[in-house]
Amino acid sequence: MAVAGYPRSLAKDDELKELIREGARLTSEIAALRDQIKMRANRIDELSARVRELVPDGGKEWLDEGMASVKFGVKQSFDEEKFLADYPPEEHPYLYKHKPAVTTIVALLPEGESSKYRSEEVKLSFVGGPKLSFAGRPTPTTNKEN
Questions:
Q1: Residue 139: strand, helix, or coil
Q2: How far apart are the C-alpha atoms of 28 and 26, rounded to whole Å?
Q3: In whole angstroms, what is the distance from residue 43 CA to residue 75 CA?
Q4: Would residue 8 count as lying in a domain?
Q5: Which DSSP letter does residue 105 get?
Q6: CB atoms within 10 A of CB 132
Q7: How confident is the model at residue 43 (pLDDT cuts 50, 70, 90)?
Q8: Cα angle at 111 between 107 and 114, to 5 degrees?
Q9: Do residues 139 and 130 make contact, with C-beta atoms less than 8 angstroms apart?
Q10: Integer angstrom CA distances of residue 82 from 31, 41, 75, 87
Q11: What is the rounded distance in angstroms from the CA atom of residue 24 to the CA atom of residue 28?
């Protein structure tokens, strides 16, 4: 039986080593892209706020500017607390979905009983690889041998 430890190297095969390096590189690139997406989403929020200031009465309409346009839409939300107060589940069960509380089941039932309802799937997570700058180019990293 193998003892779990971190880090350990079981990769003797060159193909396996390359797959691990590529997975780590792609994971690093995804992290850099997430940062870029977050920055751009924040910028879109700023632009949207400014457009709303300039067109305060914009309803469901489009404003076109050459190859670019903006659509005003209405975002709807649901006040769950108010709904619960007005339509309690005990009095209106037909308005609610009932499903098992998995965390409670695992905590309260014996292991043998709860395990027959659960399944596991091994997922891989790649770590390491070059850190990327916002231009998408690798930046220097250090390698630590443990």
A1: strand
A2: 5
A3: 19
A4: no
A5: H
A6: 19
A7: very high
A8: 75
A9: yes
A10: 39, 31, 18, 8
A11: 6
Residue 35 predicted with pLDDT over 80 = yes
Cα(23)–Cα(131) distance, rounded to whole angstroms? 13
Q: Looking at the 3D structure of the chain, how many domains does it have?
A: 1
Enter the tokens of residue 58: 């914009």
Residue 32 lies in a domain: yes
Which residues span the domain enclosing 25?
A: 14-119
When the pLDDT of each residue in the chain is averaged and rounded to a whole number, the result is 80
Show the tokens assigned to 114.
């709860």
Tokens of 106: 């695992």
Q: Is residue 108 part of a domain?
A: yes
Tell me what pLDDT residue 42 has: 95
Tell me how far apart the alpha carbons of residues 21 and 17 are, in angstroms, rounded to a whole number.
6
Take residue 59 and report the two structure tokens written for it.
């309803």
Q: How far apart are CA 9 and CA 2, in angstroms?
A: 12
